Amino acid sequence: MWNEFKKFIARGNVIDLAVGVVVGAAFTAIVNSMVADLFNPLLGIVIGGLDFSEYYINLSDTAYASSTEAEAAGAPIIKYGVFINAVVKFIIVAFVVFLLVRQINRVKAQFEAKAADTKNTEVPTPADILLLTEIRDLLKAQKS
């Protein structure tokens, strides 16, 4: 059983998955920082710090000044503002991920183009071939 477990762990799929989770967690930190530290302040300037979290529908007969007050009283409410905030955050995060992946793909394409351009176009000269043949023969003679 132990050998089977070692064989399972050593398979590429498990290791690839573990690496993917670690890199994904690091990438999440980058995206979250980019959204919170770069995009949200700019968006706050543009929309004037608009926050939908206090938008709600009160399903009880009693009036409340805020959703927090209604929740504390145990009143049934539909907090559609929180949902709107979540949708806006999702759109911002998706846009940031799009921008990052787009840049990564551009850099990758540049590396691939550079690798394709650097093909070995050097043709060995007859002197090189002669030298290599002599080295081969010397190595064969040493083995014998």
Order of helices and strands: HHEHEHH
Biggest sheet, open or closed, and with what strands and sense? Answer: 2 strands, antiparallel
The domain count comes to 2
Shape call = elongated
Rg, please? 31 Å
How is this structure best summarized?
With 144 residues, this protein is mainly alpha-helical.
What this model shows, in words?
- The protein contains five helices and two strands.
- With 144 residues, the chain is an all-alpha fold.
- The protein is elongated.
- Helix content is 74%, strand content 3%.
- The chain folds into two domains: 1-46; 51-144, no CATH class.
- Helix 2 crosses helix 4 (80-117).
- It has a two-stranded antiparallel ribbon with strand order 1-2.
Entry keywords:
two-stranded antiparallel sheet, 2 domains, mainly alpha, 74% helix, 5 helices, elongated, 144 residues
List the helices and strands and how they pair.
Layout: H1 2-10, H2 12-47, E1 57-58, H3 67-72, E2 77-78, H4 80-117, H5 126-143
Antiparallel strand pairs: 1-2
Helix pairs in contact: 2-4
